[in-house]
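Lecture notes, unit on binding sites. The following record was shown on slide 14. It pairs a sequence with 4'-deoxy-4'-aminopyridoxal-5'-phosphate.
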Amino acid sequence: MARIYNFSPGPSVLPEVVLQRAADAVLDYNGTGMSVMEISHRSKEFLQIIEQTEATLRRLMHIPDEYSVLFLQGGATTQFAMVPLNLRRATGNADYINTGQWSRRAIAEAQLLGNVQVIASSEDENFTYVPRDYTISPDADYLHITSNNTLEGTRYADIPETGSTPLVADMSSEILSRVIDVTKFGLIYAGAQKNIGPAGLTLVIMRTDLAGRHSESVPTMLRYDVHNTAHSLYNTPPCYAIYVAGLVFDWLENVGGVAAMEAQNQAKASILYDFLDTSQFFRNSVATADRSIMNVPFSAPSTELDDKFIADAAAAGLLTLRGHRAVGGMRASIYNAMPVAGVSRLVEFMQKFELDNAGI
Ligand code: PMP
């Protein structure tokens, strides 16, 4: 089977070795004569899967014992509601920084449920940078950031210092791509479908003492303490997605862990940004210090040339490069599983496209 280079923002490329192991386990899990999809979530086989998956993640991210790891469903979007439902007091307030479309969604959801202060925004410059100037409200129950902005291609190079205010981060599009200090956060969440595994699984890493602050009206399924007490087995979890996430974590450990992956991600991003910085044709509008190493938006001089680029790239085996409709142009998502060779191929293609089309 010929595999193309898939630059999709998510669901996105997975390591081929993981796909092979996952495919084998679909037919027969470890000689059990059953598919991994057919075993009970209460079976000893599955309990071993979920325990090992958590243990590997804890090693990869150096997650301390004071933090819980939850394997949930509902996507990052459900976390937009669960975070305020669980961490904001009934009459409390929550601070948010608005760095793009996904922050906006998180803010809108929190506003449905109570008080929100947007203490900084980069909307004035079309979300091409990450704000550094803000003051956390004295009464904030937490500060929420989108640590990597999937559509706009920005990220927090440095994680904000929030003192005693818990920091909550949507890390959907960058979790496990760089070394982060978990102890700086009250809660981290991420949809799985970029750097973790298949869609359907949502990961939450939270300081355990923050669970249980919800009011009595919060539905059972939306309470962190319920999932924590039940070790993510309050109801049937997304078993297959958890299994594949475990394979991805094993793969990541085998290739050297998060620090090694960060070095490779930095190298991949540099190949692309170095070319963009010298190109007279393509451009990337993000402030240099705030550039994401996961999602790289760029554009050609006209929308016609953008369309031609996307079509020609697809014909050359470089797929899913269209930018989000809110941003336009192109976007290369170069998550952990995208090999260096894929980015090099993309840049070679861009160089040739520029030569062929610059005079048009
Ligand atoms: N936050 C960010 C930063 C995202 O990139 C996405 C999805 N692309 C979401 C939230 C929404 O995630 P989900 O579809 O898992 O709800």
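Take-home: The mean pLDDT is 97.
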